[in-house]
Design goal:
By secondary structure, the chain is of the alpha/beta class. It contains eight helices and six strands; from the N terminus they run αβααβαβαβααββα. The protein has a six-stranded parallel sheet with strand order 3-4-2-1-5-6, sandwiched between helices. The structure holds farnesyl diphosphate.
């Protein structure tokens, strides 16, 4: 790391410093928001309260990254495996997502956020699914932060669906096998017009990707912090960015 990089890496991302001005380009940050229930356990609170605090943490971060002109933020809110949690927790989370759409959408839209939901949305409760579609439609022309929320998302399922669509095109004679490239596969994923993440942050300390953006993460830098999601402040985010700025990205080259 040279001196210039070190200086920039040690500076927090402030609203006056756009992400383009940073030493290492940063367009897309993806986050695994883990540790809500442990946060509640540690405070002696009902576990589900941890998820409510998780929403507050996300709101704080969206404001921060919007002000800092980050282009893309993708958060993992509910995985295709999360249905295996207790029914009470699943119901609570679905209600929480509905509440966020009802009470937070206007402010997000005012701040220019373009919302997209990625995942198997048809598998979400029907009423919520309609709300998700409306939120995407209402914000689709917004020019600010492009925010993706992964809901009923699983990367293996996403890749499997993409392979199925490509195979159908080959079978129908519209595509030859030699036209199957990494770019073509990317173009069949939920994230088709979104650049791959530069940085993936995981809170809560676990060292795994948990079926999140496996294809898209090929060259992403990983940052894991023990900080639990409800405690993940803008200052913690800036710490992750400072560490990212000090990394050397080689994409498999020298
Ligand atoms: C992981 O913590 C978190 C979740 C499964 C839910 C994430 C949801 C939110 C942060 C709510 C806000 C999201 C939106 C989009 C409104 P965990 O339950 O696995 O915690 P643990 O690791 O302590 O058990």
């Amino acid at each position: 790391m040279d001196r210039t990089q070190k200086r920039i890496a040690s500076q927090p991302l402030t609203s006056s410093q756009s992400t383009e001005e940073r030493a290492l380009p940063l367009t897309h940050v993806a986050i695994i928001m883990d540790g809500n229930r442990r946060w509640a356990d540690r405070k002696g609170l009902p576990r589900l309260i941890g998820h409510k605090e998780g929403v507050k943490s996300l709101k704080r971060l969206v404001k921060h990254v919007s002000a800092a002109h980050l282009d893309f933020l993708t958060v993992y809110a509910f995985s295709s495996e999360n249905w295996q949690r207790g029914q009470d927790e699943v119901d609570y989370l679905m209600e929480l997502f509905s509440q966020v759409l009802k009470y937070e959408l206007a402010e997000l839209a005012e701040n220019g956020v373009r919302l997209r939901f990625i995942g198997n949305l048809a598998g979400m409760p029907a009423q919520l699914n309609r709300g998700l579609a409306a939120a995407m439609e209402d914000t689709k022309l917004n020019q600010g932060l492009k925010m993706q929320v992964a809901l009923n998302y699983g990367s293996r399922l996403e890749i499997t669906e993409a392979v199925g669509k490509i195979a159908a095109e080959v079978q129908a004679g519209r595509l030859s096998c030699s036209a199957i490239t990494p770019e073509l596969i990317s173009a069949h994923l939920y994230t088709k017009d979104i650049p791959d993440p530069d940085l993936i942050i995981r809170t809560g300390g676990e060292m795994r990707l948990s079926n999140y953006l496996l294809w898209q993460a090929a060259y992403a830098e990983l940052y894991v912090t023990a900080v639990l999601w409800p405690d993940f402040t803008p200052a913690e985010f800036d710490r992750a960015l400072a560490e990212y700025s000090a990394r050397q990205r080689r994409y498999g080259g020298d």
